[in-house]
Amino acid sequence: MGQDQTKQQIEKGLHLYQSNQTEKALRVWMRVLEKSADPAGRFRVLGCLITAHAEMGRYKDMLKFAVVQIDTARELEDPDFLTESYLNLARSNEKLCEFQKTISYCKTCLNMQGTTVSMQLNGQVSLSMGNAFLGLSIFQKALECFEKALRYAHNNDDKMLECRVCCSLGNFYTQIKDYEKALFFPCKAAELVNDYGKGWSLKYRAMSQYHMAVAYRKLGRLADAMDCCEESMKIALQHGDRPLQALCLLCFADIHRSRRDVQTAFPRYDSSLSIMTEIGNRLGLIQVLLGVTKCWMIQKELDKALESIEKAQELAEGLGNKLGLLKLHCLCEKIYRTKEQQRELRDHVVKFHECVEEMELYCGMCGESIGEKNNQLQALPCSHFFHLKCLQTNGPRGCPNCRRLSVKPGYV
Fold this sequence. Notes:
Layout: H1 3-18, H2 22-35, H3 39-56, H4 59-76, H5 79-95, H6 99-111, H7 116-135, H8 139-155, H9 159-175, H10 179-196, H11 203-218, H12 222-238, H13 242-258, H14 262-279, H15 282-298, H16 302-319, H17 322-338, H18 342-359, E1 377-379, E2 385-387, H19 388-394, H20 400-406
Antiparallel strand pairs: 1-2
Helix pairs in contact: 1-2, 1-3, 2-3, 3-4, 3-5, 4-5, 5-6, 5-7, 6-7, 7-8, 7-9, 8-9, 9-10, 9-11, 10-11, 11-12, 11-13, 12-13, 13-14, 13-15, 14-15, 15-16, 15-17, 16-17, 17-18
């Protein structure tokens, strides 16, 4: 298959894919991969296969094609192709929750001396790295990466990247419980979709609606949460987007749990659990098991709650997800207090505070914890964040966290 024919077949596959004929598109692209003698064409078709498998939640296949793409990029001896292939490798590992590998591949991308195209990819690299740091609950580094990605988006007038970063920032602020910002950023993403997204994939609209639904639920606006989640789920079903379907089912279950309708929540959690397991989203599985645990606690089935916690703890330890561990210790503390098991209670209180210290989830000005309840937060240029009220009270005196880090250990 020559260069022109390769190009035609790739376009044919794209047309099928955009018409929701995914399996036909995959067959066309696989034929190109088998028969094309054009390395640049093979590189492009591998990019199409990587994107398609990512959206279907076939993350192991996504990784397999990313590895092949790196070999093709080396054959082409082009730094832009190599940077793009390492970014796809980073994204594949991010989807599989291999966060340390993601960070490592992202750093490889950023260290490459490419041309303008490589520089334009740096925003996407920063976003992927930020998502990985967030998965590891390293919040300052995650925020630093998201802010870099946002700067790249603004400098390159890349509205699609800006939309994705806003969704990640929504997730970031949801985790540290500044629900005002958790809603603001996906609303901003939805505005970008409305203003610029006429030719974009509908997945951007679905993504922004999902993150809005999560924030609305946290704010107790359950009817709004349900509306946004239903819209997101509708698009996810139309496009066969399994990862988003799993997240929407989780959100539906959480909404029903917030209404204390446990009997309706449980089947949604089960459906989400099934898809999360199928696609390999271990971070999502932790969230599902946390929801299931809380349902058992509502029903006062404490031993069943502890069984769910045990499964979630194994996953969180395997991923290095410190926030997940903190939440699990908090739930254990409540359970063992109810059961009046003092030794186990003390053990989880100690572990809870160790997690808080490790993640630096406290305000460096007032010393009170961050992420325990809904609070307005503000980040300084160094990406350390504090209670907004503390910054307003203390004024611009520089960052106390950075000052602490700059003191040599011998002087502490």
